[in-house]
Design brief:
This protein has 6 helices and 13 strands. With about 325 residues, the protein is of the alpha+beta class. It has 3 domains: about 70 residues, no CATH class; about 70 residues, Helix Hairpins (Orthogonal Bundle), CATH 1.10.287; about 90 residues, Elongation Factor Tu (Ef-tu), domain 3 (Beta Barrel), CATH 2.40.30. A 6-stranded antiparallel barrel has the order 7-8-11-10-9-12. A 3-stranded antiparallel β-sheet has the order 2-1-3, with no helix packed on it. A two-stranded antiparallel sheet has the order 4-5. Strand 4 and strand 5 form a beta hairpin.
Length: about 325
């Protein structure tokens, strides 16, 4: 039976940082073999010492392993910090200012502070009633041809009046046997010819300018007003496919020079001809007075006022309307 010599082991415990951390933990034990007791000299280590005597070497190795395992467990990293608070506990994110409606429209919500920075003003809408309208397009008519026809009509009318008077005079004289039948017949033929000339010229006016102008009283004064731009004659045509069940009562015209201020116009009657481009029904309107000095050839758009019950709605200021230029 073998016996082991008596050995003495000293296990030293110290304090050292682990992995750069500030937390304290004991150092791994240091084991040193010392001489037998009779040769041992125990230094003053300033720390706790344990002396083991008469322990077989295999047991010493096992004890060292157990001590190292316990120290490693004690020097393990501290517990991880608690998991972050769930998302529900975080501060609620601000609600988005941009939303989308059911029909795909984009809705932007602006609070009062942002409206003030942007210079955006909000005002309540006022109620309004408007007549039923339909939009038309046209131009200011050139009345030079009309003035020529009116001059011819005036001349023919004067000749007709003179021939009629002469015929009546001769007819009276013939009843008194103071005029021959031949002279009477000649006067009658002249009166009929001049009256036919009047009707022919009047029909030309009717065919080219419509009944509203052809039957107008004092046509020369009317032509003079149009020629001097004191008034203006405008034709508005509806696009092809658009129609109205009743005749308009008036119109609000817009010129290209000033689309912000509508110009009221008086309805005269239907136009005698169809526009070659729009191919829709046309109407004649009179602007009297003519403060905008609408001249012949000027492009005009307008809204024809129709008979019927007025439509109820709200009035939107022009400054609140945003126009966007759409290019093909």
């Amino acid at each position: 039976m073998k016996t082991y010599g008596r050995l003495q082991f000293t296990i030293r415990f110290g304090v050292a940082p682990l992995g750069g951390q500030s937390s304290e933990c004991p150092e791994a034990p240091e084991v040193e073999a010392v001489k037998p007791e009779r040769f041992r000299r125990t230094p003053d280590l300033g720390m706790e010492s344990c002396v083991f005597n008469r322990i077989p070497l295999p047991c010493v190795a096992v004890m060292i392993l157990v001590a190292i395992t316990a120290l490693l467990a004690g020097c393990s990293k501290p517990d991880q910090p608690a998991a972050a608070a769930p998302a529900s506990e975080k501060a609620a994110e601000p609600e988005s200012r941009i939303k989308h409606g059911k029909n795909g429209e984009t809705i932007i919500t602006l609070d009062e502070a942002i409206q003030k920075v942007m210079g955006l003003q909000v005002s309540p809408l006022s109620g309004a009633q408007v007549s039923q309208e339909v939009k038309g397009y046209g131009h200011v008519l050139d009345v030079s041809l009309l003035s020529g026809l009116v001059a011819d009509l005036t001349t023919a009318q004067a000749a007709s009046d003179a021939s009629q008077a002469e015929f009546k005079r001769l007819k009276t004289l013939a009843a008194q046997n103071n005029a021959s039948d031949r002279a009477l017949q000649t006067a009658e033929a002249a009166a009929v010819r001049d009256q036919a000339q009047v009707e022919s010229t009047r029909l030309k006016v009717l065919a080219n300018w419509g009944g509203a102008i052809a039957t107008r009283e004092n046509l020369p004064a009317f032509i003079h007003s149009l020629s001097s731009l004191t008034s203006a004659l405008v034709e508005l045509d509806l696009p092809a496919g658009d129609s109205v069940d009743a005749t308009p009562t008036g119109a609000q015209l817009l010129s290209l020079a000033n689309t912000a201020k509508p110009i009221p116009a008086q309805f005269l009657g239907p136009a005698p001809m169809v526009d070659a481009q729009l191919q829709g029904r046309g109407f004649l309107f009179l602007v009297d007075p003519n403060p905008s000095l609408l001249a012949p050839g000027a492009a005009i758009s307008g809204f024809l006022t129709l008979r019927g019950e007025a439509l109820s709605g709200v009035s939107v200021p022009r400054e609140a309307i945003i126009n966007r230029l759409v290019r093909p």
